[in-house]
Write a structure and sequence with these properties.
By secondary structure, this protein is of the alpha/beta class. Strand 2 (about 55-60) and strand 3 (about 65-70) form a beta hairpin. The protein has a 5-stranded mixed β-sheet, with helices on one face. Helix 4 (about 85-105) packs parallel to helix 6 (about 120-130). About 35% of the residues lie in helices and about 20% in strands. The chain contains 6 helices and 5 strands, in the order H-H-E-E-E-H-H-E-H-H-E. The radius of gyration is 19 Å and the shape is globular. One of its GO terms (molecular function) is structural constituent of ribosome. It is found in: Mitochondrion. Keywords: Mitochondrion, Ribonucleoprotein, Ribosomal protein.
């Protein structure tokens, strides 16, 4: 029998493999930054509210916006009674979760602080429906 030969050099063809498995450590930035906790993420979920619309998006620390759902989209806006109420935030959370799962993203951090999540009904409903649809939030920053 011939001896097994192993590759002496390994080339990772998927640079985001550790990221997708949840093993990559988020960038921590510099030691003396005031807002380093806000920048220590790989994926971050934001809910943006304007006077007439709401936007939910998933932001990558290096590449910017990866997945987005908005009440500006005609297909979403036609199904809603109002583009700014909590029902719209709930549906944006659902739609963003489905789009994240289709993109292979299962873990994210909320961009809002704990205080904002507790005080704002829109933000809490949006994040709740993201978790219901199996997009999990990493609460501890590793």
């Amino acid at each position: 029998m011939s001896a097994l030969r192993y590759a002496t050099r390994f080339v990772n063809r998927n640079p985001r493999n550790l990221e997708m498995m949840g093993l990559q450590k988020p960038p921590v930035g510099y030691e003396f930054e005031k807002d380093s906790a806000k920048r220590s993420f790989i994926y971050k979920v934001e809910l943006l509210q304007s006077k007439a619309h709401q936007d939910a998006r998933l932001v990558h620390y290096r590449d910017g916006t990866v997945v987005e759902a908005s009440t500006r989209e005609k297909s979403i806006s036609d199904q809603l009674y109002s583009n700014t109420d909590t029902c719209a935030a709930m549906n944006l959370g659902r739609i963003l979760a489905v789009r994240c799962l289709r993109a292979g993203i299962h873990f994210a951090l909320p961009a809002a602080s704990e205080e904002q999540i507790e005080t704002s009904k829109h933000v809490s409903v949006d994040f709740m429906y993201l978790q219901v649809c199996n997009v999990w939030f990493l609460s501890d920053r590793q």
